[in-house]
Amino acid sequence: MMFYTAKDAWMPCEWQKDTTNLLVGFCKSEDLIYMQKQMHLFSKNTIKEVLGQSDDKKVNKVDTYYGYVFGILYLFTKYKQDTPKISFYIVLHTLLIVCDDETCLQELQKEILQLDPGVCTLEKTLREVLEYVLFHVERQLDEVENEMTAFDEKISPFDRGIANEFREYRRLMLRMSHFMEQILDVCENLLEDENTFFHTEHLHQLKIAKDKAVRIEERVRMMEEYIEQLKEEFQFQQDYKLNQTMYVFTVVTVIFLPLTLIVGWYGMNFTSMPEVTWKYGYLFVILLSVSVVGCLLLYLKRKKLL
Prior knowledge:
This protein has eight helices and seven strands.
């Protein structure tokens, strides 16, 4: 557990409840439990949510309580398993970040402590947290865009696995769209500032984060449309392939159906058929079949069906 206060430089310090300077803390859930036992600062329900003991789903949200604001943010990943969670508490002039993912916690600490402490505000610090989450969304979105560009070049109606890939990408983009809606709700709830923790002249920091979230949401929507276009193109290729196959079968049927009739006709071998006993009957049927095929081919070619 580490706390820093913003003065001329970021100075390590202890928890201070009624500080007038910006105070930023970084800790894990076990540290939060220790703090709660010592000072009883926060609601037990929020502690349960931090520990993952509540029945709530993985939803990005912000809740306002008496004297503080509690929020949960998740880092978007391609797969739902092991999604890093960032919980945070906002008290007057204070931001406490709780995360059990060591890499995530260290990266957040590094990003925030790089800010100029002389001009850093609570709003600016909170913006850094939001933009850290948005950065991971953008990184996943960039990967999807690159994959879809390569995917566009290899689309083939003969690849049966492409339909399943389309399904996976559509599910991924649907998750990303819902995720961004939640982030926008978080930004709007923070901007409402029910506890009046923020200064009006600094609220533009949160608006910047919200505007960035809006732009990413637009990119997600455009990617959804692009995936839908690729799916339609793939479907068109499949339909065209099927039509070509049916066309070939139709032409073959048109050409050989008369031959089937001839074979069936002379295959009955009635004694009254003069061709059955005729010396040149066999040759006659061969020439008749060849003539029929030739006439049909010539007809189809003139009609530009071949």
